[in-house]
Amino acid sequence: MKKQLKRQSNTGKDRPRIMAGYNFAYLDEQTKRMIRRTILKAVAIPGYQVPFGSREMPLPYGWGTGGIQVTASLIGPEDTLKVIDQGADDTTNAVSIRRFFSRTAGVHTTTRTREATIIQTRHRIPETHLRNGQIIVYQVPIPEPLRFIEPRAKEVLRMHALKEYGIMFVKLYEDISRYGRIAKAFDYPVLVNDRYVMSPSPIPKFDNPKMDCMPALQIFGAGREKRIYSVPPYTKVKSLDFEDYPFEVERWSRCCALCGSDNSYLDEIIMDDRGSKLFVCSDTDHCNERVAGGYKGNQAESIEEAQISTGTGARKCA
Amino acid sequence: MCMKNSDDIPLLKVESISKYYGRRIGCLGIEFELWPGEALGIVGESGSGKTTLLNCISGQLEPSEGAVWYSSNGGVIDMCNAPEPQRRLVMRTEMGTVYQNPRDGLRMHVSAGGNIGERLMANGLRHYGQVRRRALNWLEKVEIDQERIDDTPDTFSGGMQQRLQIARNLVTRPRLIFMDEPTSGLDVSVQARLLDLLRGLVTELDLSMVIVTHDLAVTRLLAHRLIVMRGGKAVESGLTDQVLDDPQHPYTQLLVSSILQP
Amino acid sequence: MKWMIDVDRLNKNFFLHTQGEAKIPVFRDFHMKLKPGESIALVGPSGVGKSTLLRLLYGNYKTGSGKILVHHNGDVLNMAGADPHMILHIRKWTIGYVSQFLRVIPRVPAIQVVMEPLTVRGASEKEVRPRAEELLSRLRIPERLWSLSPTTFSGGEQQRINIARGFSATYPVMLLDEPTASLDPVNSGTVVEIIKEAIGMGTSIIGIFHDEDVRNRLASRCVEIQPVNNHTK
Questions:
Q1: Contacts of residue A241 in chain B, CB cutoff 8 Å?
Q2: Residues paired with A85 in a beta bridge
Q3: How far is C-alpha C99 from the chain's CA centre?
Q4: What is the ipTM of this complex?
């Protein structure tokens, strides 16, 4: 990774120590080479799902075994890792994966998007624009966008090979005829580089436009399904739609209660037993950074009090 | 106007098609030409190789020997050796297949409108309103209540499912349509309605058709020409009325004399 | 052009494979020529093969050996052994046929049944509708029946639909198999008129007319068909 990215959040301290008895970043070198070769192929064919020999990892399928293998193969001692789960840095899964790499690879970890060289994510893309040189690794449960439409795996392969994607539009058509709009809100299918239809993993469709011509390298790992695919930097990513029903992202009528942001993806949080609700940024790092910069939402103080008094706070604020 | 068709080249030219399943014969040395606007019936008892032959000529099964030449809008192509993308493109734009079992030809969990629209969208139409309009139009043509457009085919009767299959295939205005026992499993009044509908569409769209059936009455109504198959071989072929009114081969005579007259 | 149809050394046998391989000879070295503008009545006892001859000429029955030459589109073609595609073409443009029975197609309205020979030639329904309506009116088919399928019509009505269908288009050659059978004298008279008009327009005719009066009014000559007596070999 680039030099300037190496500035650590915990400057001055030494890197964490690698646990004895493990190879660097847990996987053995042959496996990492195999996965790197897969990644190279995936980068060479944007959006194409490359099969790979997925290994057993010390966490269950569905918890990010694909993403963690990709990260393990890419990470070097100089890298700084950020892991998010639905935008948050402090959920169990994110914390565990960060600790896994700090123990097995001795790398620095961070919660700051800007400081990370590798960002492993489940179901979100950070609000902060990613730079060229950064890598974002997505955890993918089901890589095949055609899976639930065409059950025959062989036929699906053929459809990809021949770029026969009419059936994807049948899905969208069904949505509009049933709900009056394209109802898909997560894992919204995209066409990569005008060639392959790809599942962007279950990120909200709000994040889809960020994938288009993103300066950072995007790699998707599906451990259980044994597939890796990629969107190289500055690649065209188009969300599928109809001319008369164009792709749209969701909008909120309110701003983040903590930082006042009016253009980030908001989570709805139930505050108490009476059902009072609060909308806050899903991307905790983004929110914290804004609060630190002096931005304020309309309920910033009252929330902190509420959190302290009731102990129901779903997140910690800076 | 007078010589409209006779100078044309045949739409489909089948050259000595054979298909072996191991040592067993599926079909053997079948040859015919199909001209634009013509309907060919393939008759014979179950296991005589009718469906094998149909699958070979419709690009769904690779024959062991022989060739199938199709004169597409873009020139003559060898259906057995053409690159797959080209073959599939031709199959989904210029050809259609109506299956005996609607489950093979329809997406049962997709609405009627989606079923009809699939080919349009596969061929690049990206306008919901237009897809919908054309689906409605075709529902009307195949005599399905337009209000059923958002219902899935598993809520349809057998006859409606077959008509939906036809609409789904004809929406891209193909030139050649293959049918595998389209009327078996339907009761008689529904059969008559379907056959009449097909007849009308064939004339209106100038369709060519290959129809596999064991029902000679169906061929009398729909097919200009017949091939009678037995044990994988064509035992007799010719004009439908000639084969049915003056059958030459013992097997055809048996077949014709076995028809029940109500 | 000396003839429209030239039947030369025609042989036809029926083999009944399902009935003890019986062989029934119908024609042996049969000759006949139909000249342009001529109207031939086939005569002979019942069962001698008059209808069979018409069906052979129409390609409905398969010729055993010999030739049936037809002038079609400036070419001379042999109906015996022509490929089905060509026979269909000849039927579309050159040879018309009115059979004894209408083969009814369920659900197709009578008017469309009548227009069909013209529409298959590529004409639009709008163009040909007046001709069909004229024929139906002349043949006294009530207008309320035009849009109904002939399936439910009486025998006489069906026969008149059949004639209207046969004469909606003009052909150089018409084959008529008892066109006036099962018709009352009034309608029979109309049918004779229609046939005469066709002859006037240059159609050559080969027909079977049981009614002597009809035969006398239409036929320019008679051809008698002799029974082939020897049933073995």
A1: 126
A2: A88, A122
A3: 6
A4: 0.88
Residue burial C159-177, b: 16+ Cβ < 10 Å; e: rest: bbbbbbbbbbbebbbbbbb
pLDDT (tens digit per residue) in A85-100: 999 999 999 999 999 9
Write the burial class of residue A148 (CB in 10 Å: 0-12 exposed, 13-18 middle, 19+ buried).
exposed
Of A165, A178, A242, the CB nearest to B128: A242
Q: Is A90 exposed, middle or buried (0-12, 13-18, 19+ CB in 10 A)?
A: middle
pTM, entire model? 0.82
Give the B-side interface with A, CB within 8 Å: 84-85, 88, 92, 107, 110-111, 113-114, 117-123, 126-129, 131-132, 149-150
Chains that touch B (3 or more CB pairs under 8 A): A, C
Where chain B has pLDDT below 70, the residues are 1-8, 260-262
User: pLDDT (tens digit, 9 = 90+) per residue, C113-161?
Assistant: 999 999 888 888 899 999 999 999 999 999 999 999 898 898 889 999 9
DSSP H/E element including B180: strand B176-180
Over A86-142, what HEC string results? Answer: CCECCCHHHHHHHHHHHHHCCCEECCCCCCCCEEEEECCCCCCCCCCCCEEEEECCC
- Contact present, B18 and B29 (Cβ < 8 Å): yes
Domains of chain C: 5-17+31-224 (3.40.50.300)
Q: To which residue do tokens 């790992």 refer?
A: A221
DSSP summary character for residue A198: E
Query: Is the CB of residue A175 less than 8 Å away from at least one CB of chain B?
Result: no
The most distant pair of C-alpha atoms in chain C lies apart, rounded to whole Å, by: 56
